[in-house]
Automatic annotation (TrEMBL):
<dbReference type="InterPro" id="IPR013766">
    <property type="entry name" value="Thioredoxin_domain"/>
</dbReference>
<protein>
    <recommendedName>
        <fullName>Thioredoxin</fullName>
    </recommendedName>
</protein>
<keyword id="KW-0813">Transport</keyword>
<feature type="site" description="Deprotonates C-terminal active site Cys">
    <location>
        <position position="27"/>
    </location>
</feature>
<dbReference type="InterPro" id="IPR005746">
    <property type="entry name" value="Thioredoxin"/>
</dbReference>
<keyword id="KW-0249">Electron transport</keyword>
<dbReference type="GO" id="GO:0015035">
    <property type="term" value="F:protein-disulfide reductase activity"/>
</dbReference>
<keyword id="KW-1015">Disulfide bond</keyword>
<comment type="similarity">
    <text>Belongs to the thioredoxin family.</text>
</comment>
<dbReference type="GO" id="GO:0005737">
    <property type="term" value="C:cytoplasm"/>
</dbReference>
<feature type="active site" description="Nucleophile">
    <location>
        <position position="36"/>
    </location>
</feature>
<feature type="disulfide bond" description="Redox-active">
    <location>
        <begin position="33"/>
        <end position="36"/>
    </location>
</feature>
<feature type="site" description="Contributes to redox potential value">
    <location>
        <position position="35"/>
    </location>
</feature>
<feature type="active site" description="Nucleophile">
    <location>
        <position position="33"/>
    </location>
</feature>
<dbReference type="InterPro" id="IPR036249">
    <property type="entry name" value="Thioredoxin-like_sf"/>
</dbReference>
<dbReference type="Pfam" id="PF00085">
    <property type="entry name" value="Thioredoxin"/>
</dbReference>
<keyword id="KW-0676">Redox-active center</keyword>
């Protein structure tokens, strides 16, 4: 895992996510998930690039089942962007780097998503 990406733990979720002053994007994933593994390097690159403006985190759904259940994670990878303790965008499934950058830049600018990013 990149040093720019934090690992979310159930016991620290409020502190790590809900009380965060910057926007935070969480990659809900599992080690057995092929698409999750494929998106990992892009997520790490974006984390390094945008670390000053946004927090990047990963949450293993197998180890943190109550968080996954609370946020209705039914498919992985799912990326959720939080601002002010609220989910402001959700991206499910494989996504291109450009789609992720658009979502990240919208969150950093405090804008609502211009298009739905949910891929079914």
């Amino acid at each position: 895992m990149s040093e720019s990406v934090i690992e979310i733990q159930e016991s620290q979720f409020d502190q790590q996510v809900l009380n965060q002053s910057k926007p935070i994007i969480i990659d809900f994933w599992a080690p057995w998930c092929g698409p999750c593994k494929a998106m990992g390097p892009v997520f790490g690159e974006l984390a390094a690039e945008y670390a000053a403006k946004m927090v990047f985190a990963k949450c293993n759904v197998d180890e943190n089942q109550s968080i996954a259940a609370k946020y209705g994670i039914k498919a992985i990878p799912t990326l959720m962007i939080f601002q002010g303790g609220q989910v402001v965008n959700s991206i499910t499934g494989m996504s291109s780097r450009s789609a992720l950058e658009t979502a990240i830049n919208s969150a950093i600018a405090g804008e609502a998503p211009k298009t739905p990013f949910v891929v079914q």
